[in-house]
Amino acid sequence: MFQESVTLCPAHSSPEAASEKPLRVGLLGLGTVGAGTYRVLTRNQSLIRARTGRSIAITMVAVRDLARASAVVGREVTVTTDPFALVTHPDIDVVVEVMGGTTLARELVLKAIAHGKQVVTANKALLAEHGTEIFAAAQARGVSVAYEGAVAVSIPIIKALREGLVANRIEWVAGIINGTSNFILTAMHSQGLGFAAALQQAQAQGYAEADPRLDVDGTDAAHKLSLLAANAFGIPIPFAQVQTEGIEALDAADMAYAAHLGYRIKLLGIARRSAGGLELQVHPALLPQDHLLAAVNGSMNAVMVKGDASGVTLYYGAGAGSEQTASAVIADLVDLARGIGLAQALRVPPLGFQSGALKELPPAPDAASAWYLRLHSMDVVRCTAAALQALAQAGVGLRSQHPFCPSSHHAPAALVLLTEPIHTTVLRPLLQRLAQLPGVVGVPQAIRMSNLDSTPAARWQHS
Ligand SMILES: NC(=O)c1ccc[n+]([C@@H]2O[C@H](COP(=O)([O-])OP(=O)(O)OC[C@H]3O[C@@H](n4cnc5c(N)ncnc54)[C@H](OP(=O)(O)O)[C@@H]3O)[C@@H](O)[C@H]2O)c1
Fold first, then answer.
1. CB-based burial label for 65 (10 Å; 0-12, 13-18, 19+)
2. Which of 78-117 are b and which e, b meaning 16 or more Cβ less than 10 Å from the residue's Cβ?
3. What span, in angstroms and rounded, lies between the C-alpha atoms of 122 and 101?
């Protein structure tokens, strides 16, 4: 049975944490995440207070539609349509930015920092694009900007990188970090739907927005990957460096061919430190079906981290959702209420600020990758011979070749070629050459074969 009266352990006690004064929170936005934050804080109030040693009270909310907001929050909360009044209000300790966008949100967050407020945000686009400016302002003003909800929703991955894995030199971070695209790919794989039909299903079930561009073109995953990389490697947020490719060009037939060959196609975000520099990529890739990330389905997210001491660790949870994101937002609020996060060493991004200026890692040169290539052809025998000749002429090694029968007499057959690792400078002209082979129909498909760690630790163990 939970007890209301607990003794705080010394690590969590601080003069501030012990104080009875509530942490007064102003919410910018009361939509999916804002309303979830209010609901969870209200529902679990006594539990959170007992664990924190201090209450956390939402005292003010800024929205556009007053009537809608008043239906969500109680009368004790001041509702305003003037977000600047909230971020400058003397009775607000923490500003929680959950309104989205990058223009007004940036202005409000910088204003809040200038007024000495702590900031919590779930806005990955804001931090990916303006985080370096925002964190520098926070550093100069001596306040924190916390953002657990911006990266992997309910998965406490920033905390894991900052605290649980603090002893490690991180080698790579990789994951499925966009719930919408993972929902679409799962529907394409399990129901044989084309991209457009799977997207429609995601929209109908609330897993994709009316304008899904940032989710399906990989931008949202790139936002999150750059925040993961900043934390993992102690560098300024490297959003501009991320090479991003989305899932719009994927075909259900390729899902089926890949499955037949023992692979699943997933949209991966990968940040890897190599001798040459920093590799930052978001792209669809074939994963062996017994890879742990291949089993992450629907709208779920997962992040895998390889540390030099910890080895491979895996974190799994919801990729979107009102209370799921609220869980992370409130965890940040609890840190602030306890006084954690105010210490210089724990301010974000955590590593580089301790030694002064953050140092960038240079982009790694284009890493070679093995590829899945697929051609459709009305004459698969001649096409195979010509394709193998084209690969040999380009100096591309072949791992295996797989013809797939046509679905009907008039449909083309498919030829799948799995190559040895090659650079994209070799791939591009090869694809042009393959498209011109006799009998080839449509544009050849090229999807990377994942080169993530394939040690047993990253796979389901088979006894
Ligand atoms: N939804 C998720 O699952 C999720 C997960 C992780 C992170 N996030 C991030 O969390 C942030 C919020 O997302 P959301 O899904 O909660 O968005 P949302 O449902 O669209 O809610 C946005 C809220 O902000 C308010 N707002 C927008 N512009 C405003 C303005 N100019 N002045 C005052 N209020 C304004 C809206 O007020 P009105 O309703 O009155 O217009 C609404 O209450 C985004 O950055 C998003 O990327 C979302």
1. exposed
2. bbbeebeebbbbeebbbbbbbbbeeeebbebbbbbbeeeb
3. 11
The domain that holds 423 is classified in CATH as: 3.30.70.260
C-beta 269 within 6 A of ligand 1: no
State mean pLDDT over 395-407. 92
Q: Is the CB of 108 under 6 A from ligand 1?
A: no
The reply to whether 193 falls in a domain is yes
- Closest atom of ligand 1 to CA, residue 69: 40
User: How many domains in the chain?
Assistant: 3
Q: Is residue 5 part of a domain?
A: no
Using a pLDDT cut of 70, give the percent of the chain over it.
Answer: 91
Looking at the structure, do residues 55 and 114 belong to the same domain, yes or no? yes
Q: Whose CA is nearest to atom 4 of ligand 1?
A: 320
- The runs of H, that is alpha helices, within 21-176 are 32-43, 45-52, 66-70, 83-87, 104-114, 124-141, 149-152, 157-159
Q: Is residue 454 part of a domain?
A: no
Distance 451 CA to ligand 1 centre (A): 36
Q: Is the CB of 36 under 6 A from ligand 1?
A: no
C-beta of 62 in contact with ligand 1 (< 6 A): yes
Task: Say if ligand 1 is within 6 A of residue 325 CB.
Answer: yes
What distance in angstroms lies between residue 63's CA and the mean position of ligand 1's atoms?
9
**C-alpha separations of 171 from 175, 306, 308, 345, 447 in Å:** 14, 6, 7, 22, 24
Please check whether residue 361 lies inside any domain of the structure: no
Q: Identify the CATH number of the domain in which residue 108 sits.
A: 3.40.50.720
Residue nearest to atom 15 of ligand 1 (CA): 32
Edge to edge, what strands does the sheet with 118-121 contain?
Answer: 78-80, 56-62, 23-28, 94-97, 118-121, 145-146
Question: Distance from the CA of 459 to the center of ligand 1, in angstroms?
Answer: 37
Write down the pTM of the prediction: 0.92
Q: What is the mean pLDDT of the chain?
A: 90
Which residues participate in catalysis according to the annotation? 224
Check whether residue 71 and residue 173 sit in a common domain. Answer: no
How many other C-beta atoms are found inside a 10 Å radius of the C-beta of residue 135? 24
Host domain of residue 260:
164-319
pLDDT in tens, 409-449: 788 899 999 999 999 999 999 999 999 998 899 999 999 99
